[in-house]
Amino acid sequence: FSAAFKKHKRSYIKIKNGLKNTKINYSSIIYIQSDKPYIKINTEIRSILCNESLREIQKRLDSNVFLRVHRSLIVNKNYIFEMESRKNGDYDVKLTTGETVRFSRHYKINWSSYLYH
User: Fold this and answer.
1) pTM of this prediction?
2) Which of 3, 22, 104, 111 has its CA 20 to 30 A from that of 72?
3) CB neighbours of 31 closer than 8 A, spacing ≥ 6?
C-alpha cells in the first residue's frame, strides 16, 4: 500500500442495525461476540447489536489487532491482560476491563503466537 492510502485509512468501522448507522472507533472495540441472530460489539462505552454475521465483520477488521479466538468471539488483543490454561488446550483470558472470555483450542492458530510473545 502507498503511504497516502495508509494515512487516510479509516480508524472506525460503520455498523448498520435496522435503520441506524453507527461509527465505532476500532480502538474502542474490546470484543465482538455472536448473540444470534445478531452480533454484539462490546466497546469501552456501550454494547451495540449489529445485523451482520461474525464472519462478515471479521473481514472488515485488522487481523493484526483483532483475533478470532472462538467460534462466537473476536477479541481486540490490546485488551488482553492475562491468560490461564484450562489444561485441555482452551484458555480463560482476563481482559483489562476485568471480564473473562474463553479462547478455544480450535482457533489456536489465530492466537497462539500471542500466547508466546
Assistant:
1) 0.86
2) 22
3) 42, 73, 74, 75, 76, 79, 95, 101
